[in-house]
Every structure is written in structure tokens, then in C-alpha cells.
Amino acid sequence: MCGAYCAVRAMERASVKWLMLAVAALGFAFLANMLEGLMVAPAFGLAYLLVAPTSSRPYLAGSTDNNFMNLVIGYNGLARILGREQAGAPGAAAPPEGLQQHGGFGGFGRQDPGITELFTG
């Protein structure tokens, strides 16, 4: 009962303090009734992961808008064929003055953008 109360309080604000109190309560329940005290631990953990307002994470795989399909179709698809570093990404910077960009994806030697890049050495 005490563990459930602490887990609910932890989920309200993503509070580490209340989460640790819930874990401590489950530890005491384990000492009292062995495995019966820990049977609810997976449910508490899953509920916390789904409900708690945790901090934000970085965008997916370096995408500019956290959209998986834009990453698949744009950056890893059309952008590589067309030779653009970011597929029309807003805020994509131009290369500095005096530097020429060849293909935008590194590699050795000069790379010409386009579909023929797939079939040349």
C-alpha cells in the first residue's frame, strides 16, 4: 500500500525522491513476504514510464523534426540521391566561404551527387 502511494506520487511530477521511496517500500515488502512484495514492481515501473512527465530526449537519429518518416524518406533517401546534406531542412547551413561541398556525406575523393553515385567506384 505504501509502495503504491509513493509510486503514484512519483508519477505525478517524475520525482526521483518518491520513486526511491517506492523502491524502498517494495524492499521492505520483500523482506516481509519475499516474492509477493515484488510482484507489483513491473507494474509500477511500466506505469511510471508511461505516465510520468519525464524530461525530453534528443531528436531521433539526428533528425531535424523528430519525424521518423522524414528521416527515412528525406535524409536517408532522397537527400543522398540528390546530394543534399539535409533534405530541405530549415536552418541547414551553407558551407563556409571558400569551402566547396562535394556530396555532403564525406568519403574519399570528389563525389558527384546523383543517382550515378550508386553505381560508380
Describe the structure.
Pfam families: PMT_2. Residues 4-55 form the Glycosyltransferase RgtA/B/C/D-like domain. InterPro entries: RgtA/B/C-like. This is Glycosyltransferase RgtA/B/C/D-like domain-containing protein. The structure is a single chain. The chain is an all-alpha fold. The protein folds into two domains: 2-51, no CATH class; 60-90 and 103-118, no CATH class. Helices cover 50% and strands 0% of the residues. Helix 1 packs antiparallel against helix 2 (16-33) and helix 1 runs parallel beside helix 4. The protein is elongated, with a radius of gyration of 25 Å.
List keywords for this structure.
121 residues; mainly alpha; 2 domains; elongated; RgtA/B/C-like; Glycosyltransferase RgtA/B/C/D-like domain-containing protein
What is the CA-based Rg, rounded?
Answer: 25 Å
Largest beta sheet, briefly? none
Distance between the termini: 67 Å
> Which structural class do the helices and strands define?
mainly alpha
What is the helical fraction, as a range of percent?
40-55%
Which term fits the overall shape? Answer: elongated
Beta-strand percent range:
under 5%
Total count of helical runs of at least 4 residues: 5
Low-pLDDT residue spans: 86-96, 98-107
User: What is the tally of beta strands?
Assistant: 0
User: Mean pLDDT, rounded to whole units?
Assistant: 75
Summarize the structure.
By secondary structure, the chain is mainly alpha-helical. It has helices at residues 2-13, 16-33, 35-38, 41-51, 68-82. It contains 5 helices and no strands.
